[in-house]
Amino acid sequence: MPRIVCVAGARPNYMKIKPVMDALERRGAEVLLVHTGQHYDPAMNDVFFADLGIRPPDRFLGVGSGSHAEQTGRVMTAFEPLLEEVSPDIVVVVGDINSTLACALVTAKAGPLLAHVESGLRSRDWSMPEEVNRVATDRVSDYLLAPSPDAVENLRAEGYREDQIHLVGNVMIDTLLANLERARASDVLDRFGLTRGEFGLVTLHRPANVDDPEVLAGLLKALGEIAGRCPLVLPVHPRAAGKLAELGVPGGIQLVPPAGYLDFIALQDAARVVLTDSGGVQEETTALGVPCVTLRDNTERPITVEQGTNVLAGRDPARIVATVNGVLDAPPAPRRPELWDGRASERIAEVLVRGGSSITRPRPTDQPRPTDRTLPI
Ligand code: UD1
Ligand code: UDP
């Protein structure tokens, strides 16, 4: 049975890696969880281990915050000797954060095969650090594990081999469905004085939205107008905390600390509308059938617009207010994309444990490997 290193580093990774680890272990794989330490506050980290029942990491790299180069470089420097020591058959990375790319680059030059969960998503917006991370991670991956047909189409258009590409579905939804009943038992609505179906939920953390005070002030103006019709609750991401405190928020917007997973799912499930720039939240609202207005000009998850409840509103305050009013007047019909069925991690484990010919590069290892080693791009 293979020895598999699973990597997690920040908030959106935990709900993706947990069901994959479980499915691999059910098939007898030896799984090691490596935590890079990119996120470290209890509210951005510990609460997810508790809520999701993730065991403590086998290895903790403790890299913390820094510039892109500092953070990526620290993960790489710490991960390289670990890989050499542990010598796994496969490394699994999820999503699009700096830790994802850092561990992918190290793995690509070492022996193990590399599997990317959430492969093929593209915003085509190169100003997003995540777009760089996605494209570069896919380029050095052996197994490309795609959540949706649009992701498969992107990978084909970029010239990847068919035997590398696996349409497996969305692991985020595995975790959502597995925890929905527990989330519905949360008392978070009472704690925040909210009534089901009578409030809007907001998240903001994209650099393009929160780093520039002028842009953030425009978004807050729009949120203030919306709050006049539908009160808003905003769990504050640490990236945005300082700027929000400096600018101050209009009345009707309740700022609360970052929510734990179960509380946040309960908030989404009970919200009348969700306003967000998060990737994962666009998917969860689609699965829950809750209207979502995305405060970005583009999305790497177009299926949530085409087959879900997501509407893109951009960053212009007037357009945001008009879009939210439209959604409140005529909420989109709930629909759930195919393969967002709670079984994506089972399909991933099946692919990884079965093996196959996904290998793309010669490996510095004595183990026999398949011989087809050319990429057609
Ligand atoms: C990161 C990911 C982003 C993801 C987001 C999820 C990258 C490039 N970005 O963005 O794709 O959507 O996580 O939430 O990998 N901070 C704390 N406590 C923490 C973590 C961060 O206070 O536990 C603060 C620090 O001031 C830090 C800032 O937040 O400098 C940004 O953290 P960082 O991990 O660099 O990026 P995020 O904006 O969180
Ligand atoms: N989330 C949470 N508490 C919050 C905000 C988000 O538990 O206060 C969860 C959310 O349900 C989803 C994930 O965090 O599962 C999304 O992470 P985030 O928005 O930080 O990152 P992104 O998906 O944009 O990369």
Automatic annotation (TrEMBL):
Keywords: Isomerase. It comes from the Bacteria. Belongs to the UDP-N-acetylglucosamine 2-epimerase family. GO terms for molecular function: UDP-N-acetylglucosamine 2-epimerase activity. Its EC number is 5.1.3.14. SUPFAM superfamilies: UDP-Glycosyltransferase/glycogen phosphorylase. Residues 355-377 are annotated as: Disordered. InterPro entries: UDP_GlcNAc_Epimerase_2_dom, WecB-like. This is UDP-N-acetylglucosamine 2-epimerase (Non-hydrolyzing). The keyword Isomerase applies. The keyword Transferase does not apply. Residues 363-377 have a biased composition (Basic and acidic residues). Residues 24-352 form the UDP-N-acetylglucosamine 2-epimerase domain.
